[in-house]
Every structure is written in C-alpha cells, then in structure tokens.
Specification:
Length: about 300
C-alpha cells in the first residue's frame, strides 16, 4: 500500500473543517512547532539583566505562564515589578492582581521607571474574584484594541484564598474542604490557558508563588503553595532563596541595602539549548536584579561604611 503524502493528509484534513479557519489552523505537521526566539514574542528585559543568562530567554514569553516561587524577601516581587516596568515601556498593557496589597508604587515609579498611574489593578484576596477581574480586563482591552499585548502578574497566587475558606468561620468545627485553593487555582489556570489560546501571541503571565516548609513526620524540604496544577501549567519555574543580607553603616546605624538570593531553575520548557543553567546567585536591590560574583566558596561582599 502506497503511503499518502503528509502534506496531502494535512490539506485534506483541513478541508474537512470547511469555513472554520480556527479549527483548520489546529491541523499541521511537526514543522510548525515553535518556541519563542524573536523579540516580538517576549516582554523583553534589558540585555544586561540576569534573567537572560538564567533562563536563556530574552524576557517573559507570550502564550506562556512563568512562575517565580520562594520564601519571603527572596526577590520574587522585585523581578515581577521589573518585568512590569519593561512591559509598559514596550506599550504592553499590564494587569496586576494584587492579592497581598503590598505593591510599592513609589519604588516602582522611582527606581524601576514604571508608571503606576497606568497600571490596571485587581485587588482581592479571593482566587475566583481576582481571576474574574483579570479576565474581564482582558476582554475589555481586546474589544477596544484587538492587537493589544498584555502582561498579567498575580502576586501572590500562593497567598490567595478560596471562597470556601473565606466563607468559613475560624471557629467552625467542620473542617474546610481539603485542597479548596488547589481546586480553584486549577480552574483559574485553565481559564488563563484558554484565553491565551483565544488571543495567541499577545498574553504573558507571571505567577508569584510562596515556598513553605513541609510539615509532618518524615517530611523534608519545601513545597510550592497553591496546588500542583499551577506548576503543571507553568512553562518556566524559578525557585528563589535568600542567602545573604547586604548592609552598610550610615552614621553608626546598620542599613539594609539589598540581598543576595539563589535562583534555581526547577523547570524550563522554553529554552532551546542543549544545556541549561541550573542555579545562579543574584543581587537584589531597590533598583532590581543585578549580577553578582558572590559565592559560598569565595569572598563575601564587604559592608560599606558611609559614616561621617
């Protein structure tokens, strides 16, 4: 039996969809598979930014969910703010889901060159309400500007709560529905993925997440909050861990100037290199992420003395 030409199979299968162009567009060969490489496929970060070396990417890609996880004060929100500021400079709409209500607009405007007056904000501690607000923003933007590009940032998804938990009294003897946050986050991620598919090439997302210590007999290490489906839908996961606080002495008082944090690439389905960076140390200051030569085996950063 003679083999049918692959191109003919694709062509004839597409014809079965008739006038349904979106349906026929799903049909292709492996030649059409693509990973982002061009600047227009990213919210681009500056050439000198550590993110490029860490991930092998120009920035945060559209059609993808990027997760930045870690304990408190490890540089997660700082990176998210830097990407937001870069996006605004590239005429990208930025929607911030602020579930912790801690966004520092003064630092964002002063040190990162952002424009907080033109940020689109959704403030809610509840997963479904925050997700609903972000999706409604997308609908409004796309109806007004179909070619618009959008960056979504949720800070933090691990700190958001489910409706079941919000509506339960703390002294209620009945236990909360197990995994209620994970269930709602799973539904949330599916809606985001469907929206990205609807508006291909125009929506990027950063999830800021929390790392918590595992508790219980025989449990060791840390885990990411919010359920496994968050990580399943994330194309890139970076785990942050603070390893040193940087200080200097000003008029006899010790002042914090930043931190050194370890950034570990836990998942990277976007880089096309044969090898990938596993871990690197990064300096985080009020201005953002910077390269550092700090290492456990080398000489530590010296503190400065600015006393007069």
């Amino acid at each position: 039996m003679a083999k049918i030409n692959v191109a003919d199979i694709v062509s004839k299968t597409r014809a079965l969809y008739g006038k349904d162009t979106k349906g026929s567009a799903m049909i292709s060969t492996g030649e059409s598979l693509h990973r982002p490489t061009k600047p227009e496929e990213f919210v681009v970060l500056p050439e000198e930014h550590p993110w490029r070396k860490l991930t092998g990417l120009l920035g945060v890609p559209y059609d993808s969910i990027v997760q930045i996880a870690g304990k408190y004060d490890s540089g997660k929100s700082t990176l998210a703010a830097e990407v937001m500021a870069s996006a605004q400079k590239q005429d990208v709409y930025v929607i911030l889901g602020d579930s912790e209500k801690k966004f520092d607009k003064v630092r964002y405007d002063k040190h990162m060159g952002g424009d907080s007056a033109n940020l689109l904000i959704v403030q809610s501690t509840m997963i479904r309400k925050l997700a609903g607000g972000m999706l409604k923003y997308i609908k409004t933007i796309k109806e007004a500007d179909p070619q618009a590009k959008i960056l979504l940032v949720h800070d933090s998804i691990g700190g958001s709560i489910s409706r079941a938990r919000a509506e339960r009294d703390i002294d209620d003897e009945k236990s909360n529905q197990p995994g209620s946050e994970a269930v709602e986050n799973s539904d949330y991620m599916k809606h985001i993925v469907a929206t990205m598919d609807k508006y291909q090439g125009s929506i990027a997302m950063i999830l800021v997440n929390q790392m918590t210590d595992k508790i219980g007999f025989g449990q060791k290490g840390q885990s990411r909050s919010g359920g496994h489906k968050i990580s399943f839908h994330s194309s890139l996961i970076i785990e942050m861990s603070k390893i040193k606080t940087l200080t200097k002495i000003v008029k006899g008082i010790e002042i914090k100037t930043g931190i050194v944090t370890s950034a570990k690439v836990d998942k990277n389905h976007l880089s096309q290199g044969d090898t990938q960076v596993n871990k690197m140390n990064i300096m985080v200051t009020a201005e953002g992420w910077k390269h550092t030569d700090f290492s456990f085996g080398g000489k530590e950063e010296a503190t400065e003395d600015d006393s007069e």
